[in-house]
Specification:
alpha/beta; three-stranded parallel beta sheet; globular
Length: 113
């Protein structure tokens, strides 16, 4: 994404919730923070992030962390409990997902209260 000029980007991450391949700032749950900070430094609009977790590990703190991060970006977190809804959203036209961004970000603000 370094050379991509995009004002409306989305990232889809499929994970098992574990991280045994990354290093440095990109290791573990802080990897998402490092990714967003690297993008923010470039002074470009931040992408909406959608995470699909394919493991039972995401039902605990890992899942809650990913949910907060995705909602804050205007994206969505998915596990087995909302897979059909998640697929429906990703298959919608971009304009619909862009409108949902405001909804997801409000859900994030509600989580913070």
């Amino acid at each position: 994404m370094e050379k991509v000029e995009c004002n409306d980007c989305e990232i889809v991450i499929i994970t098992d919730g574990g991280d045994n391949q990354s290093s440095g700032n990109f290791l573990g749950l802080t990897d998402f923070d490092a990714l967003m900070m690297n993008l923010k430094v470039r002074q470009r609009p931040l992408p909406r992030v959608f995470v699909f977790c394919v493991s039972k590990d995401c039902e605990d703190a890992i899942g809650r962390r990913y949910k907060e991060l995705t909602l804050g970006s205007g994206g969505q977190f998915c596990d087995d409990s909302n897979f059909d809804e998640y697929c429906d959203i990703l298959n919608q036209p971009n304009a619909v997902r862009l409108n949902l961004k405001r909804y997801f970000q409000q859900e994030y603000r509600d989580l913070l209260e």
